[in-house]
Amino acid sequence: MGVELRVHLFFPLLAFVFFGISGTDGWPRGLALFLLLVAAVVTRETARLLVAAWLGLRLRAVLLLPIGGLFAYANPESQENANQGAGQFALALAGPLANWATALMLAATILGASSEVRLLDSPLITAGHLLRAMVWIQAGLGVLHLLPAYPLDCGRLIRNGFARKHGYAPAGRAAAGLGQALALAAMLGGMLLHNPWLILAGFFIMIGAQIEDQGVFFQSVVDTVRMREVMLTDFATLSPSDTLADALFRCVHSLQEDFPVVRGPQLVGIVSRQRIVDALRSEGNGYIQSVMSRAFQVARPEDTLGTTIRRLTAGHGLALIPVTDSGRVVGIVSVQNLMSSMSLLAEQRRLERQESVD
């Protein structure tokens, strides 16, 4: 569906836990039990992807966890539509309904084929009885998302309701904290009851809540940081009248990949290091004005980092955005430096938040 699929490292490692849970039934049955969980997650996320496509939401990636997937939206409009109105309820219901419908069809098929299979016997999920486990893993994953723990579906609806009154950043932090508290309670309850499924569910709910908390915090950073805080102010420029050979010499002594092209104080184009090299190889020496790109966007020092990121990722193959003030280039923002700047800013804001709490 054009969506990048990512799998959390702990998801495939969970197979080894299933090997241990299978005990005397052997590792092949443990692997089969793990694959049944994978099938339940795939069923859930396929339904959610179809609903997202039906709602017209644009997704960038899906991160798969044993409790389900976390969506990363391609633009703020899609994220806003997914968290408001009927769209949020459609996405919240799609996963559980898909799992429950699959469980009912599997149960009907199994009971129709053999009346000797006892689907209600305990334990419901065990490597010793894969047919029963196949039904209850699907049903259990749907029931799990009725818990008010973020980022489960019910917890996400509660977060959205809270966000309408208090804003998404505070709501996200509060919901992530509640999700982590409930996850910890589930793990403790699983230890007291000797129930490995409660422990695993709590563990992965906590991981999902932490991932979502990081995402909310990162979004709060990009929506509050201004270009003047992250733009590079020590940069090189080229002139339209510079030769390609002279420009190549400048490239050798600069770490920049892309260069603003200015005529006096006025920005007239952008050229990349690779474009200069390619032109020299194919056409020989010439002038920068013949190879520079005249299609570019600019940012202002007071623009937010989020606005600039959306410009960089909106297409057009942009790798550099000059920052201008009264028509004069005062800084540049590139994909290359933005990645490191964003992570450093996030860490700086996190430290500031911790200091304010202390």
Average of the residue pLDDT scores: 85
Low-confidence runs: none
- How many distinct folded domains? 2
Q: What structural class results from the helix and strand content?
A: alpha+beta
- The proportion of residues forming helix, as a percent range, comes to 55-70%
Across the major sheet, the strand order is 1-2-3
Which shape, going by the Cα principal axes? elongated
Describe the sheet with the most strands: 3 strands, mixed
Order of helices and strands: EHHEEHHHHHHHHEEHHEEH
Number of helices: 13
Query: What is the β-strand count?
Result: 7
Give Rg in angstroms.
26 Å
Terminal Cα span: 46 Å
Percentage of residues in DSSP E strands: 5-15%
From the structure above, extract its key features:
three-stranded mixed β-sheet; about 350 residues; two-stranded antiparallel sheet; 2 domains; alpha+beta; elongated; 13 helices; CBS-domain
Short structural description:
With 358 residues, this protein is α+β, with helices and mostly antiparallel strands. Helix content is 60%, strand content 12%.
What does this structure look like?
With 358 residues, this protein is of the alpha+beta class. It has 2 domains: 217 residues, no CATH class; 118 residues, CBS-domain. Helices cover 60% and strands 12% of the residues. The protein contains 13 helices and 7 strands. The strands form 3 sheets. A 3-stranded mixed sheet has the order 1-2-3, sandwiched between helices. Strands 4-5 form a two-stranded antiparallel sheet. A two-stranded antiparallel ribbon has the order 6-7. A hairpin with a 2-residue loop joins strand 2 and strand 3. Helix 2 crosses helix 5 and helix 8 crosses helix 13. The radius of gyration is 26 Å and the shape is elongated.
